[in-house]
């Protein structure tokens, strides 16, 4: 096997980002949960936390955060769980708008989603 | 007669004494006879006269006999005295000559002989003694001295020759020890063959020294070759293991992206084990003079460095990192620094209780970046600390100084020596041991002019963010399209919230291109080779931003190559 002359990615592994955890304690997060940061990043925070807090000045979906951080969704959920536990962010599901009644049913949305995927 | 000399002196007056005695005797006899004859009666007178006559005759006869004898003795005594005088004269003469011989002749002869004359020549001008014994004495003296002188000279010559040879030998040995062998060993260590080293070495004059030199040099060359061959074989074999570990890590990272929560934990465990294997193989490879398994072509921020280091040790969960520094380590030194810190942290974790934390602090100082690793284990003994200090000092980078299985600190020493890092041990205020690592400024990445906006953004991304805008204007669509490492996501990824901190032309382009989503999740195709990355880039360029790109004004080859080179970096997969 030919060895690459240089490495291009990041030297750290994902388990050092999560501190060895592979599963978030916060079960309520899914891909479209909206996250809003409640405070500014402080000195000494993990860089991913800082990024999330900056990113979530406006409500941002978990999946967007994951894409932005270039991290697997599992890892992002763990990180968000940390921030949630310390109260630095709040998470809310986009349910309320559905409760209004004029939004389409989630079943319909799912169908649309499936249709979109099939495109 | 037996002693002629002594009585001779007294006989001479003795010759006259008998005559006087004879006259007195005769007178007394005559007088006595006359008196007797006168006194004697007439009748007896004839008788008396007769007796007196006879007595006188006897006396005369006796006297004559005595006189003659005395006369003879006197003569003998005289001749003896003469002879004695002659003898004494001769004895004196001989004595004088002997003295002359001893005082002047013999020294003179000896002098000539010492000057190198032959015995005959030395004796030529000398007075020859009359006595045959003295003559023989002189001759034998001359010959003896001559032969002794000859022997002495030859012995001296031999001694001088021996001393000269001994000196030459000593000089040769000195030269051998001081110049020849060190020079030859230096060349051999530099990789020269025994023949080359021997050809450049002046051949010692002494045959045995020459043989010795050749023998030593050949033996040293053999052992040097043996160790070099062992090292080469070791590094070659290890490099395969290293490559396998790196590719396994890349695969694992890919799987972590692809699979969900259910296997994520297992993948992380495998990832961790593989990282530990990587540390072990890198340790051996570095010790054997090989290379680390990875190399970085960009600055790596300190947080990533610490995580990279900590991720390679078994007890990474016990390590608490306190890193508020935005500094990045230059790419060339990043892997070395990471390995060095990993070894030190591993050491600290291994020698502290399994429930205690190991704290790692990063501070920025004018002298450089100071990383302090503190454990709360048992305080090291002074001797152990000295040993550790010595091992990490990098003074002895020779494998010969390795102690058993304590390889980690030796590698730390090697790396510290290579990069000019100072590593020192001290007792920790927390009860255990502290290691202070000073990373000198030349290992730190240059802060670029564009860096200030990064001050707002967390430190971690500062260096990379400066690259992304640079890539942006030149080839905006390409980098964003496929995999970009975490840091660059800021620049390329999101349009909304981060737009303020990102140049607009970069911010606007790419996110849609990245969103080639199949299942609602962002999928980042990861090329593992340059060729694949290149193809991916082409695809991305064609697919998403191809058309507008084509419309851009033509660029010269240098600019396009530079753009390609820059864009390649964020595009290639991270692992």
From TrEMBL, chain A:
It holds the Pfam family DUF742. InterPro entries: DUF742. It comes from the Bacteria. This is DUF742 domain-containing protein. It comes from Streptomyces pini.
Automatic annotation (TrEMBL), chain B:
One of its GO terms (molecular function) is protein histidine kinase activity. Residues 332-443 form the Histidine kinase/HSP90-like ATPase domain. Its EC number is 2.7.13.3. Coiled coil: none annotated. GO terms for cellular component: plasma membrane. This is histidine kinase. It catalyses: ATP + protein L-histidine = ADP + protein N-phospho-L-histidine. GO terms for biological process: phosphorelay signal transduction system. The chain crosses the membrane at residues 49-68. The keyword Nucleotide-binding does not apply. Residues 455-575 are annotated as: Disordered. Residues 531-541 have a biased composition (Basic and acidic residues). InterPro entries: HATPase_C_sf, HATPase_dom, TCS_sensor_his_kinase. Residues 455-518 have a biased composition (Low complexity). The keyword Transmembrane helix applies. Gene3D superfamilies: Histidine kinase-like ATPase, C-terminal domain. It holds the Pfam family HATPase_c.
């Amino acid at each position: 096997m030919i060895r690459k002359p240089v490495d291009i990615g990041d030297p750290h592994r994902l388990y050092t980002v999560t501190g060895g955890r592979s599963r978030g304690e916060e079960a309520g997060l899914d891909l479209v949960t909206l996250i809003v940061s409640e405070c500014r990043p402080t000195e000494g925070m993990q860089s991913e936390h800082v990024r999330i807090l900056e990113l979530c000045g406006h409500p941002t979906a978990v999946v967007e955060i994951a894409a932005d951080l270039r991290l697997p969704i599992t890892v992002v959920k763990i990180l968000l769980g940390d921030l949630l536990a310390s109260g630095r962010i709040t998470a809310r599901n986009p349910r309320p708008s559905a409760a209004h009644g004029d939004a389409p049913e989630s079943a319909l949305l799912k169908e649309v989603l499936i249709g979109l995927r099939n495109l | 007669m037996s002693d002629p000399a002594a009585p001779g002196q007294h006989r001479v007056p003795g010759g006259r004494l008998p005559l006087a005695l004879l006259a007195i005797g005769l007178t007394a006899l005559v007088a006595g006879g006359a008196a007797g004859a006168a006194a004697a009666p007439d009748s007896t007178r004839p008788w008396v006269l007769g007796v007196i006559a006879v007595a006188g005759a006897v006396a005369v006869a006796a006297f004559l006999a005595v006189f003659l004898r005395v006369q003879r003795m006197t003569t003998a005594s005289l001749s003896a005295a003469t002879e004695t005088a002659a003898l004494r004269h001769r004895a004196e003469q001989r004595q004088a000559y002997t003295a002359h011989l001893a005082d002047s002749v013999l020294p003179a002869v000896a002098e000539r002989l010492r000057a190198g004359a032959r015995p005959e020549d030395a004796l030529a001008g000398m007075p020859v003694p009359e006595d045959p014994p003295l003559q023989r004495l002189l001759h034998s003296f001359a010959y003896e001295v001559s032969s002794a002188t000859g022997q002495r000279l030859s012995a001296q010559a031999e001694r001088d020759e021996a001393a000269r040879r001994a000196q030459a030998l000593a000089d040769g040995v000195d030269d051998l020890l001081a110049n020849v062998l060190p020079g030859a060993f230096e060349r051999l260590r530099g990789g020269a063959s025994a023949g080359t080293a021997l050809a450049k070495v002046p051949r010692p004059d002494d045959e045995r020294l020459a043989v010795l030199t050749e023998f030593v040099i050949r033996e040293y060359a053999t052992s040097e070759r043996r160790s070099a061959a062992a090292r080469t074989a070791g590094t070659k074999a290890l490099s395969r293991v290293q490559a396998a570990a790196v590719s396994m890590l890349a695969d694992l990272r890919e799987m972590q992206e692809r699979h969900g929560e259910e296997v994520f934990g297992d993948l992380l465990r495998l990832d961790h084990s593989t990282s530990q294997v990587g540390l072990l193989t890198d340790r051996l490879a570095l010790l054997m003079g090989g290379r680390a398994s990875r190399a970085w072509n960009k600055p790596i921020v300190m947080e990533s460095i610490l995580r990279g280091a900590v991720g390679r040790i078994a007890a990474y969960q016990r390590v608490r990192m306190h890193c508020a520094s935005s500094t990045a380590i230059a790419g060339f030194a990043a892997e070395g620094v990471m390995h060095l810190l990993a070894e030190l942290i591993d050491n600290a974790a291994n020698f502290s209780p399994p429930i205690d934390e190991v704290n790692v602090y990063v501070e920025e100082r004018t002298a450089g970046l100071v990383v302090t690793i503190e454990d709360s284990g048992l305080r090291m003994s002074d001797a152990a600390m000295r040993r550790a200090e010595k091992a990490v000092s990098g003074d002895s980078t020779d494998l010969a100084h390795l102690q058993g299985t304590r390889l980690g600190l030796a590698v730390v020493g090697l790396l510290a020596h290579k990069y000019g890092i100072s590593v020192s041990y001290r007792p920790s205020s927390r009860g255990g041991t502290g290691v202070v690592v000073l990373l000198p400024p030349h290992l730190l990445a240059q802060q670029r002019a564009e860096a200030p906006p990064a001050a707002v953004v967390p430190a971690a991304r500062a260096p990379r963010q400066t690259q992304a805008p640079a890539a942006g204007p030149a080839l905006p669509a390409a980098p964003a399209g496929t995999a970009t490492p975490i840091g660059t996501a800021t620049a390329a990824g999101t349009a909304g919230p981060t737009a303020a901190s990102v140049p607009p032309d970069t911010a606007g382009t790419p996110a849609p291109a990245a969103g080639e989503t199949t299942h609602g999740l962002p999928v980042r195709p990861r090329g593992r080779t340059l060729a694949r990355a290149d193809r991916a880039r082409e695809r991305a360029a064609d697919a998403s931003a191809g058309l507008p790109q084509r419309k851009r004004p033509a660029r010269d080859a240098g600019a396009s190559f530079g753009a390609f080179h820059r864009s390649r970096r964020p595009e290639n997969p991270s692992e």
